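REQUEST
  id: r-88c1
  op: predict_structure
  target: Vacuolar protein sorting-associated protein 28 homolog
  payload:
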Amino acid sequence: RCRFDNMAELFAVVKTLQALEKAYIKDCVSPNEYTAACSRLLVQFKAALKQVQGSEISSIDDFCRKFRLDCPLAMERIKEDRPITIKDDKGNLNRCIADIVSLFITVMDKLRLEIRAMDEVGPIVQLWWLHHHQHLP
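RESPONSE
  id: r-88c1
  status: 200
  body:
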């Protein structure tokens, strides 16, 4: 009984996510409501999938195949693992990496020149620290 309840919960989460995606496309849900609901559903999906995974079902694709679940929008959202309103910031990632490498090289050069005064090295280290941690949630 517990196994079937878990499968029913997973089925319901996927169907709800599909309905939410359709509602967002039709502009029936505001972007803020969509982001909050989609994020919550993705967390619920991960928890429900862990409870269902076993010998018969190893992935969400297996589950959808077994129960003939046709939810392409939900599957896309599950694969991306983020609401569509949250943009993928890969373009800025390369720039941030270049900035961090540049600051690291500057600090290393100062240390090699035996410039170790905190008032000269400190600001650069603080900049590096800020760049390094700005993408953390």
